[in-house]
Design a protein that fits this description.
Helices cover about 20% and strands about 15% of the residues. By secondary structure, it is an alpha+beta fold.
Length: about 260
């Protein structure tokens, strides 16, 4: 092929379908010589777009060696899963049954009829203190409805401990209450019971870098109530005119920490 100035741009050789020579443009289609004799070669997927051609695999049986191999692998997988999750537990149960019966029969600490004896000093705490007077276990509210006492604590037992885990309904914290920037550190040892009262001691004693030391007793995550009356008998220290201390008894929502502090 030549240009208007009779300069050859590219030429086709007899043994190649691709041109050779210098192209005038760096972009565009590359000239291609189509030869039906060499380009029309049968391909494996010609049957997909040539209706006259048939799939070379047509007529082959599905029960070939490869098909049987696939089915066998699936059956083996299913049987393995059944053996692992059904057969193995059942067989293990019957193999260990005699041993388990022997161990249970000789173990007196099993929690069942005639099993572990209950300690003589064990006493399951009640939500309503057994020393609460009967005349306060019911009352008529301001709304005219009858209310029944569901929790009470008289604190009549001397020397109770409120460290974490020592009491089922109360817990004394060991922290600084940063939310209100308190001047004291709250320590469980500052809270005890004596002479039928809960006593929280605050003293001018350095603790954890703070000048004062006191106690905070709370019931968060111990017991909650959704409605009703909440009554308490509290004696605060000092005369009524004393407003310097931070003394509080409060009931807060369950998403906050209800604190009873001194």
């Amino acid at each position: 092929m030549t240009s208007a100035s009779d300069q050859s741009l590219f030429s086709l050789s007899s043994d190649s379908k691709y041109p050779s020579g210098v192209f005038a443009h760096s972009r565009g289609l590359v000239p291609y010589a189509y030869d039906p004799d060499t380009d029309c070669v049968p391909e494996e997927d010609d049957y997909l777009h040539e209706p006259d051609l048939k799939d070379k695999n047509e007529g082959t049986s599905v029960w070939s060696g490869r098909g049987w191999l696939n089915i066998g692998a699936l059956v083996l997988l299913i049987l393995s899963l059944l053996a692992l999750f059904i057969c193995y537990p059942v067989v293990s149960h019957y193999q260990m049954e005699a041993r388990n019966r022997q161990l249970v029969g000789s173990n007196t600490n099993v929690n069942g009829p005639g099993g572990f004896p209950e300690p003589a000093d064990f006493k399951m705490p009640s939500l309503v203190d057994t020393e609460t007077p009967d005349d306060v276990k019911t009352r008529t509210g301001w709304d005219g409805e009858e209310y029944v006492l569901v929790f009470s604590d008289e604190f009549n037992t001397d020397g109770r401990s409120f460290y974490p885990g020592d009491d089922p309904y109360w817990e004394a914290v060991d922290l600084w209450y940063w939310a209100t920037r308190d001047l004291e550190w709250y320590d469980p040892e500052q809270i005890t019971t004596r002479d039928g009262s809960l006593r929280i001691k605050m003293e001018n004693k350095e603790s954890h870098g703070l000048q004062y030391k006191s106690g905070m007793l709370q019931s968060w995550n111990k017991f909650c109530f959704s409605s009703g009356y909440f009554e308490v008998s509290v004696t605060f220290p000092g005369p009524n005119s004393n407003t310097q201390g931070y003394v509080r008894f409060s009931a807060l929502m369950s998403l906050r920490v209800p604190d009873h502090t001194m």
